[in-house]
Specification:
With about 210 residues, this protein is of the alpha/beta class. It contains six helices and seven strands, in the order E-H-E-H-H-E-E-E-H-E-H-E-H. It is about 35% helix and about 20% strand.
């Protein structure tokens, strides 16, 4: 009941199976909850690059599709937020000028009872397991790609506090440049039909 899971994915595309596992950690009566961190529009890997005036006047369909990808991912973020927030968790968007977010991993904590900014890992020794690897935790990672991950499990007998401190810092440092998704406004997209098509594609292949 007092275990939390924190997941970082550059391209948030929660499959029904993964969403079900994450929400198992939800517990509004205790401190356990799921926290998900992903790229915001500014730091997204598909964020549009600045173009010259001549290029802006000569935009093709491929450019339009590329420019709609960050907004499509924000649509997926909005969908994920509904189930994550409903069980006491948060979805965070990494936004940092000049940075591209591509971090991925899982942090599982137990009995970290500090209630101030619960998304942070306040007690490094509360980290009981972490996953480091290539998976983006989406449909592509789950169904299409061969991923390589290392699962580290800590126990009370091991002298692992320096490692726990390091992995906790990794998560907390990313949170310092993140905004809770519920605080953001989703703009009206003029290419709404195109965005809808891109979302359906991404759900299966990213």
């Amino acid at each position: 009941q007092n275990m939390s899971v924190r997941l970082s994915s550059a391209y948030l595309n929660l499959t029904p199976r993964l969403r079900s596992v994450l929400t198992m950690f939800g517990n509004k009566r205790g401190v356990g909850a799921p926290y998900v961190l992903t790229a915001g529009a500014m730091s997204h890997g598909f964020a549009p690059k600045k173009q010259t005036k001549s290029k802006q006047n000569n935009v093709g369909i491929v450019d339009k599709i590329k420019s709609s990808i960050p907004e499509a991912f924000l649509t997926l973020v909005k969908e994920a937020s509904q189930s994550i927030i409903a069980c006491g968790g948060k979805v965070l968007l990494y936004e940092r000028q000049g940075w591209t977010f591509h971090a991925k991993g899982v942090w599982i904590t137990a009995n970290d009872t500090n209630t101030s900014r619960r998304e942070l890992i306040h007690d490094p020794t509360s980290v009981v397991s972490t996953i480091i690897g290539s998976g983006n935790y989406g449909a592509r990672s789950e169904d299409l790609d061969v991923e390589s991950n290392c699962v580290i499990v800590f126990n009370e007998q091991s002298e692992s506090e320096p490692i726990q401190q390091s992995v906790a810092n990794d998560w907390n440092n990313m949170c310092e440049h993140s905004t809770v998704s519920g605080d953001l406004e989703f703009r009206d997209n003029v290419n709404n039909n195109l965005t809808t098509i891109v979302v359906q594609f991404m759900k299966k292949f990213l």
